[in-house]
From TrEMBL:
Ranges of residues in domain Cytochrome c: 358-489
Presence of the UniProt keyword Metal-binding in the record: yes
Domain of life per record: Bacteria
Protein name: Thiol oxidoreductase
Cleavable signal peptide: 1-22
Keywords: Heme, Iron, Metal-binding, Signal
């Protein structure tokens, strides 16, 4: 009898414990793993360990060879190069536009950092480092086939193309202008603290080519920071895919999936890694699409000298372009695109800061306890097959590179390949805390609406709702520590 009872007790307590554990897992409780000394060096041997200034993100990865420094510097000057319109006496610099958003990469990615939303209280504040993507739902069977086969990620707005170019060469009207206004949105913590978020709404006017399609979908995006991108490219695809959990089999409420996108040069479907919705598979393609749509410069990936003029924009099509035979019949030769990609792929990530401080330690604990790491996947060992400086590095980018439903609040309602209107790629967190130093602002998220790490967290919804709630229930000092930790990465 005695033994039976204790057996029953044992069985019952096992049941109880597993029920408890299940509940704990749902609410996202996790124990932080022991501190790994490599966390100090988030980009492995590509980590910059020198003094931090406004140029903190502009350093070459220290692990590139002396000869490669040359390529880095050449890539750097192409990144900063101001393109001019055709025809011009300097054929190696012409081809701008005819429609464009900026004359150089660096104009948007200032000090290779992040862009910002214009301040509506400042008259004519620069909109340059942010752009407005456009598209429409598929209208024809052919367009539906394009999307279903992944040959296209969006259907362009028929007159204006895939983004609104608010600048143009002389003699041609720019497409139009967009504007943002904010309404306050108050959030109250369980302990009574209030934070007033700003909810953006967008409007487009001064349209020079007629009305937008009635079903047009807008997606505002700020320029992303450029650090560590070669390392994100060097993560094994399978390593990313093992974290996919589309059907939420582990019942943590979080179901990431990789975007599947078109590789323009290979002519095949690959997983997406770059852009706020992971719409491009490789750095080269991301860069060359920026050359085309943002600056109006053709490359061997997108050889259209007319940039983003659509076939309905006849005045734009009639203008001269800068495609030249000695540059592979485009405006930025294959070698120029290679150099830019080398540069963008080898920008060092600064070392983590304050790692021995009590706030960092406590904040790190809290980060794992509330479950931020279920999307902001801390660490990877990069592929052995990657180019040498990026191969086999232990890195700490804090992203799973997967898409997550972030709720209605952050939705742009504009799909891009597999990413639906509520889904975004988990943003890497390395270097986030250096935004103020480098770019003089603290704006975060895809449209720069958050003005601090705290605001960014409070905008998390959808799959991240439970984690956010857990964060909000933490005592104030714990929340502050968690934010300090994120700002130290
Ligand atoms: C008009 C502003 C603008 C210009 C000019 C511009 N970019 Fe960007 N860049 C952006 C925006 C906005 C995004 C986010 C795009 C998205 O989500 O689709 C971005 C994203 C990127 C990314 C992806 C980063 C990541 O974390 O996934 C790379 C790489 C990049 N740009 C490189 C370049 C290069 C190289 C040039 C010059 C050829 C350039 N950009 C010019 C605004 C700009
Ligand atoms: C369900 C997945 C998920 C969880 C859980 C999650 N995040 Fe995020 N996080 C994202 C995605 C996706 C974005 C990009 C959203 C956007 O730009 O609209 C993001 C963006 C951010 C940003 C802004 C980064 C930038 O470059 O603009 C910060 C900061 C951040 N998260 C911190 C946290 C912290 C801290 C936690 C835990 C309290 C957390 N996140 C939990 C998915 C998640």
């Amino acid at each position: 009898m005695q033994t039976l009872t204790s057996r029953w007790y044992f069985a019952a307590s096992v049941l109880l414990t597993s029920a408890l554990m299940a509940e704990v897992a749902v609410s996202g409780d996790h124990v932080a793993p022991a501190f790994d000394p490599t966390e100090r060096l988030p980009a492995g041997s590509a980590t910059y360990q020198g003094k931090l200034s406004k140029k903190a993100l502009m350093h070459p990865a220290p692990n590139i060879s002396f000869e490669d420094r040359m390529d880095f510097n050449l890539g750097n000057s192409l990144f900063e190069k101001l393109w001019v319109s055709s025809p011009s006496s300097t054929t190696a610099s012409d081809g701008l536009g005819p429609l464009y958003n900026a004359r150089s990469c660096a104009r948007c990615h200032a000090r290779v950092g992040r862009g910002h939303a214009p301040d509506p209280t400042v008259q004519n504040d620069s909109r340059t480092s942010m752009l407005m993507r456009l598209s429409i739902p598929a209208q024809t069977p052919q367009q539906k086939r394009l999307l279903a086969g992944f040959q296209a990620g969006v259907i362009d707005e028929p007159m204006y193309g895939s983004q609104l170019q608010d600048l143009s060469v002389q003699g041609l009207p720019a497409e139009g202008q967009w504007h943002v206004t904010y309404t306050p949105h108050e959030v109250v913590y369980p302990d009574g603290r209030k934070v007033v978020l700003r909810k953006p709404s967008y409007r487009v006017d001064q349209l020079a080519y007629g009305d937008l399609h009635p079903d047009v979908m807008l997606s505002p995006r700020v320029a992303q920071p450029m650090i560590g991108l070669g390392l994100l490219a060097a993560i094994e695809t399978d390593d990313i895919l093992t974290y996919e959990d589309e059907l939420d089999r582990n019942h943590d409420g979080i179901s990431g999936r990789a975007n599947r996108v078109w590789n323009q040069t290979q002519g095949q479907i690959e997983i997406g890694r770059f852009g706020w919705k992971a719409g491009h598979p490789t750095l080269l393609q991301q860069n060359n699409s920026a050359f085309l749509a943002d600056i109006g410069i053709s490359t061997t990936t997108y050889p259209y000298g007319q940039g983003e003029c659509t076939h309905r924009q006849e005045g734009c099509l009639a203008l001269p372009n800068g495609n030249s035979e000695h540059l592979d019949s485009v405006e930025a030769s294959a070698e120029m695109a290679r150099l830019v990609t080398f540069y963008v792929g080898n920008l060092a990530v600064p070392a983590a800061r304050n790692v021995s401080s009590p706030a960092y330690k406590a904040g790190r604990e809290a980060f794992y306890t509330v479950g931020c790491q279920s999307c902001h996947r801390p660490s990877y060992l990069t592929s052995t097959n990657a180019p040498k400086p990026q191969a086999q590095q232990r890195i700490w980018p804090y992203t799973d590179l997967l898409l997550h439903d972030m709720g209605e609040g952050l939705a742009d309602n504009r799909p891009e390949f597999l990413a639906n209107g509520r889904e975004w790629r988990t943003a890497p967190l390395w270097g986030v805390g250096l935004t103020e130093l480098v770019n003089g602002h603290n704006q975060l998220l895809h449209d720069g609406r958050a003005r601090s790490v705290e605001e960014a967290i409070l905008w998390h919804g959808g799959e991240a709702e439970a984690v956010k709630q857990h964060f909000m229930q933490l005592p104030k000092t714990q929340r502050e520590n968690l934010i300090r930790f994120v700002e130290s990465l």
